[in-house]
Amino acid sequence: MGKTLITNGTIVTAADTYKADVLIEDEKVAMIGKDLKAAGAKRIDATGKYVIPGGIDVHTHMELPFGGTFASDDFYTGTVAAAFGGTTSIVDFAVQGMGEPLETARDAWLRKARGKAAIDYGLHVIVRDVTDKVLKEMDVMVKEGISSFKLFMAYPGVFQVDDGSIFKAISRTAENGGLICMHAENGGVIDVLVKRALAAKHTEPKWHALTRPPEAEGEATNRAFRLAEMAGGIPLYIVHLSSSQALEQVRLFRDRGLPAYAGAKYVMSPPLRERWHQDELWKGLARNDLQVVSTDHCPFCMNEGYMGQPRQKQLGIGDFSKIPNGAPGVETRMVLLYDGGVVQRRITLNRWVEVTSTTPAKIMGMFPRKGTIAVGSDADIVVWDPRTMSTISAKTHHMRVDYNPYEGRRVKGKAAVVLSRGEVIIEKDKFTGRKGRGKFIKRGSPILQT
Ligand code: URP
Ligand code: ZN
Ligand code: ZN
Prior knowledge:
Mean pLDDT: 96
Structural class: alpha/beta
Helix content: 25-40%
Order of helices and strands: EEEEEEEEHEHEHEHEHHHEHEHEHHEEEE
Number of strands: 19
Bound molecules: N-(aminocarbonyl)-beta-alanine, zinc ion
Number of helices: 11
Distance between the termini: 39 Å
């Protein structure tokens, strides 16, 4: 690959905002400086634009098997959509089959990703049975760069693990350098509420939210941090935190000096909350009670036939508990955070970069290779146009799903040019990359700071 020179832009990292050129060579940032010269280099004029590290979405589910169907984006359609939105790396979840070794889950997800992913990808593993053998396999995964594991406190009989198993797994990460990512909802209580609702013939989709109260999330978040505390104050990351009650727990444990981290998400399980929770989450993000925004991208189509997909959400007609859980977001994350955060002055430009790229890279063990613009880092770079206005719509988005939760919303800001390891993959509203060009990211241990 030849040289590329990005000129006249304003570089924005989590720490700094300054005008400089960026020279890219051999997939890496080679030089940053004023009026750089590079004979024969491809030139990208970033006048009036921000030059930011590519977005990192550490919570996606491409082709996830769920409720008798599969998430409708695969590693190709989902990563192309991510690139259009300014995201250049994802971390997806491999799922351990009951009784299966973690290696089997890893291999299955590498098969899904290889030859398809258009941007770089890492993997977490969802652990469903925490046996002594599996604990040893976790050590192997960490050595191989799969350094985080998701456990569920919800979905009894499917994903849920008991407190003893959680305690063992958290303790193990203290030894092997991995990180536990927790789905914190009280699955036992939710199961009772769901059964009661169905018995009373409450079958409509709104009962999904009504049977997953924010208190069930707050309780599980508290229990998860207590377990981490009992294991010796081990770092713990709560995924898709959605309620004020859960945020309160993060604040409590962080104030006590415990390494408690949490990522915000948009939708589903946990469900959409009342609007006041959103205001609290924005505040949490601004004050660093929340450190990461990922999407939990897990799309399912509403209607039959969209780009060859079956009608998936309608599996829940007559029983809300059969609706496959999840929603699309991998393409809209950067712009929603820019528009709702930076433009509306809830967070600074640098904080936007921090929560969408730098801290995800640090917590998930990819920094400084990913998550910043620095000499030697991968040239995953977005030239961000701060002025362009657009309307979010399923008619124009690139995700393989027939609805968009933000349909009709006007937003400011756009990924004008996207580079992944120095290669231009989005330019002039076209995908210029190649199916399968994305590489597996071998991740290390988390870099944690308060
Ligand atoms: O609704 C959701 N979140 N679906 C994906 C599975 C999970 O819990 O992350
Ligand atoms: Zn979850
Ligand atoms: Zn998820």
